[in-house]
């Protein structure tokens, strides 16, 4: 059975790091106050954002450690696991951590669209790397949240805390958009590998055995999280990953339809459809004609 430390409340995580719990549902934790520790595996029951403000290789995902320079942000959604078994050596954690419980934002505008911040489901190696200017903005956001936590709680506290968290997340969305642009060359490589993956998939017998390729399958094959992969494809091509897969599917279908020795049903099965009518419906939606009509027109 896998061993890990589970943090279900903000106070548990704050106490673990020798930080005072300023609010039961939200806190900004200073990791430099924590005692030296060995690498471990942790499960978080709340939203967690690590701001690594010095270079330190204490974050691990899978079999790899990641050394982050100043101002790297790592996002963890409730229920996710982070860390792994280390070499037993102690290290002093550094940086700040924003933690907020889903109950804090329940029923608020942020709570209703928190799922739009897809970077909470990115893998650790898909972290947000900040420029010096961006780092100052993020520190300012953290400082504003911390100021409200240190202020005597009044009727404005919750609104201001949540507003500043939302402001912080909106800046992160902007900065991730910038990162997608500045990392254009490696991202172009991912697009090319995606294209090759789909070509190879449809030219093999995998559709008949595995069915239609899913976004999750393609992301796994490219060693990317599904959300990061989906956001990358959308920003690079203007299409969702699902739309891109369907476009490749339709292009392949058009070629197969011209084989007079194959029925439309055979083409559908070769492409991974369990039911030919589903293929016919999708083809007509994307092309404007049924497969049979397309064959006759061309």
UniProtKB/TrEMBL annotation:
Keyword Membrane: no
Domain of life: Bacteria
Record-annotated HTH araC/xylS-type domain positions: 192-297
InterPro entries: Homeodomain-like_sf, HTH_AraC, Tscrpt_reg_AraC-type_HTH
Keyword rRNA-binding: no
PANTHER family reported for this sequence: ARAC-FAMILY TRANSCRIPTIONAL REGULATOR, TRANSCRIPTIONAL REGULATORY PROTEIN
Keywords: DNA-binding, Transcription, Transcription regulation
Signal peptide: none
Gene Ontology molecular-function annotations: DNA-binding transcription factor activity; sequence-specific DNA binding
Full protein name: Helix-turn-helix domain-containing protein
PROSITE patterns, alphabetized: HTH_ARAC_FAMILY_2
